[in-house]
Design goal:
Radius of gyration: 22 Å
Distance between the termini: 34 Å
Number of strands: 16
CATH superfamily of the largest domain: tm_1862 like domain
Structural class: alpha/beta
Oligomer: single chain
Shape: globular
Mean pLDDT: 95
CATH topology of the largest domain: pyruvate-formate lyase- activating enzyme
Strand content: 15-25%
Low-confidence stretches: none
Number of domains: 2
Helix content: 25-40%
Number of helices: 17
Length: 463
Amino acid sequence: MRATGHILLISCYELGHQPFHLASLLAILQETGYQPLAIDTAVEDLADDVIRQAHFVGISVPMHTALRLGEQLARRIRTINPRAHICFYGLYALLNADHLLENTIDSAIGGEYEVPLLSLVTALESNEHPSLAGVYTVQHSSEAWLQRTPFRVPARQQLPSLQHYARLQWHDELRLAGYTEATRGCKHTCLHCPITPVYKGRFFAIPSTIVLADIRNQVERGARHITFGDPDFWNGPTHALRITQAMHQEFPEVTFDATIKIEHLLKHRQLLPALKETGCAFIVSAVESLHNTVLHHLDKGHTQADIVEVFDLLAQVGISLRPSLLPFTPWETLESYLHMLTFFEQYHLIEHLDPVHLSIRLLIPPGSALLDTPGSHAWLEDLDAAAYTYRWHHPDPRMDRLQTRVAKVVEAAERTNADTVETFFQVMALAYATQGIDFSVTDALTRYGPHKILPHLTESWFC
């Protein structure tokens, strides 16, 4: 099985980035003597002949969208090459393993995937049918693999060039953007987060030498911006700052963005100037809602007042905050949804948003910590395994109808690259119409005035 093409690694979607979860796995397998073929179906075609040659197919599913695309692809692979062993690996693999193993895949690996996947490939090469730690099969249940990975510098030579992926919008120019991770997992346990049932509050720091070497390789290939894709870049703030300072010293022209909790931005506010000085273009933070009741039910660790304070703090140092939102949950109300929209309009913060975030509806995967929360019986329904989530209904049916309408508007806007501010006001008009109130998008655009162009990536965030 060590011949080229016998091991096929596939990425379907990584937020418009060159797939880190292929590059990391490639490095481990190549070091052991394997020569996998890697395909990113987000930007490349996967030929039937390539599928027929594969003995082992590993499909990366680090997020919900990748899982949905990955299952479609696995069904195609199963039809063309029924003898291939198909393994899903990544955050969403283990959460949905029972459904996937019924008729689509042969194994699933969650958590730190490299070591158990290498063990699986080696065992299959020897024609064994093992019960391996970290590998979930029909015959053998296994928890996520949460032991430290012997990290290697991600192998990116085989991957499509950065020109195929999202860019940084920086004023009036577009910059090639790379992607890396400094940590995995998260020490926080927000109840709705899919990381919580997999990592259970643990995280692993990747050695700074590995991270910096990965950045160096991407800069040599044209990257002028780096996204740090850690669930929370400041799970280890000293580790993170050491990396950004070293990167800035070696590549002073390269900018970066990172995801950091509101709670951490407040706790470590003294580090914000250092972020700016080392090239931070913007920060993503999982704001989720401006309704304190919602934030309490999600165990987010921040309040609306904290969100306002962080916007002010980052404005003072010259860093944009790009909030991710989860506005459709059982606890959000029509009034609080409108309050959120009004907040972004009044504070002139609409350009900080990707409109898709105005439509996001709570996903509750198998194993979610929300399943055990008090009062969930009032809104929780049965598991829809094929959709990878438990069904739920809002206590106010208007909110479910509104979410459907908002999703159609923002999806259409995404396809046509519509103006962000105009899309925002179209959503606001829908929300007011749900209350029976007329709202003029044209008047709102006039009232809002000139639009700002803030640093952002050209691919909107999806889960």
